[in-house]
Amino acid sequence: MHNATHSTLLDSVRDVVLRAGEIILQHWDQPKDIAYKGRVDLVTETDVAVESFLTRELSALLPQASFLAEESAAENELERLTWIVDPLDGTTNFAHGLFAVATSVALWQDGKVELGVVNLPKTGECFFAQRGCGAWLNGSPISVSAQSHIEQALVATGFPYAKRERIDEIVPRLRGVLSTCRGMRRMGAAAVDLAYTACGRFDAFYELGLKPWDTAAGWLLVQEAGGRVSRFSPVADYALGADAILATNSKLHMAMAELLAI
Question: What pLDDT, on a 0 to 100 scale, did the predictor assign at position 1?
Fold first, then answer.
């Protein structure tokens, strides 16, 4: 598919993702039917309902594409053309009534993310990007921050579900970044962290243990907004499924990588 085709498809995907956000808002104040996929890893009936809706609607847009989705197709592999879907990133936030909840949808084609949408229904913010064409928030172009001093940077992070098992990896990095930068935030949804990095609200974001559906759309957002994405080592390109991600405005990339080296 060429750029014009992707642009038309992106408009349709945005519409689908916005309608998925309406489901989340309809469920917002209802009692939450919560189940556990792990010790602290939650899933609600809303996750399942939104993923079912997205699978049906995206299949209608691109019948030949497969799915890599958190709740129903997590064991699938990336094929030549694949929708990568997180129906409700920030399920714990959702369960506690916190606003940082997002739906993330990306289209993977021939080894690259070609388009991505991250929608925050509670704030009415829809971020989207197309490879080679830039990134936007609700129709306005966005770009990463211009901050070049790590001491003045606002950095986001998150903690893996296996935080107890990986505490010796988490704490030294947290100590180094926290003691150096202006401040840190933990939103509890990687798609939100990446979108906020893309639009300059955060200067950098890093995390361990994320899945492809957590990062696919946000990865493209940051790149198309002028930022840089790698693993914790700046010479190691980021790849979907990589254990570590570092996303910055590019000016802070080396400084952040040095703080994360343990």
Answer: 54
**Separation CA 184–CA 187 (nearest Å):** 10
Mean local confidence (pLDDT), 178-184: 98
CA quadruple 238, 127, 88, 145: dihedral positive or negative?
positive
Q: Where are the domains of the chain?
A: 3-141, 150-260
Rounded mean pLDDT of 110-131? Answer: 98
Token readout for 203 is: 């200067």
How confident is the model at residue 6, as a pLDDT?
78
3.40.190.80, 3.30.70.240, 3.40.50.970, 3.40.1190.20: CATH of 150-260: 3.40.190.80
Average pLDDT, the chain: 93
* Cα gap 117→102, rounded to integer Å: 10
Q: HSE-up of 246 (CA within 13 Å, CB side)?
A: 22
